[in-house]
Amino acid sequence: MRKFTVLSAAAVLVAAGGIASPAVAQGRHGAPHRAHHRTHQSSNWAGYVAGGTHKTVVTTWVNPEVDCSTRGIVSWWDGIDGQDSNTVEQIGVDANCESGSLRYEPWYELYPQDSVYFDEPTEAGDTMTATTTYDGDHRYTMTLADSTKDWSKTFHGTASGDQDVDAEVIVEAIGSGDIPPCPDFGTVSFSKTTVDDRAFAEYGPGKTDLVRDDTQLTATGDLSGGDFSVRWLHS
Length: 235
What we know:
By secondary structure, the protein is mostly beta strands. It has no helices and 20 strands.
């Protein structure tokens, strides 16, 4: 979706599991816009990022109920690359309030390629698990499962320019051009987060929050093992 410098990348995406034809949207997700502060602040990312080379990130969350009185899109996902590279390999769920009514939209992306949306239903209260894995030779496997509705979808893709230098679990306020306000998502709680089969906290990941015009929009909680939450403060 968003990156300071975009490298050219080719993604060959193959859906496994017999899904309905995915919809390709203009790239929404991607890397953080970071301000230069001692503590990490971003206009679009909140959550945790572990630097270094990683192969697999897994996390679980419950889709929150989003208040669409503020129009915009907020997303939660996990991925590899992003903060220290020009690519991101990622999978998650958007809460889309652009029309003023709420739609939950699952997607995956090999940024800077476009987001690919798929049609499986998900809604507030559903328990989701996302997995992003580097398979070697620029190949990735991304899986999203909704245990409440009992579905799981796996996608395979290749991307050039990837570096596998970060693993992250993120809440993102997204949009094209000027990033729109962040709808009130209440609190998103992530749990059982692992990177390369170890608890996320073991890597000492950096915390980041949404901050725009010196206004803090989110409060990212402390990380305990693989558990943390991101709370909405301001649109």
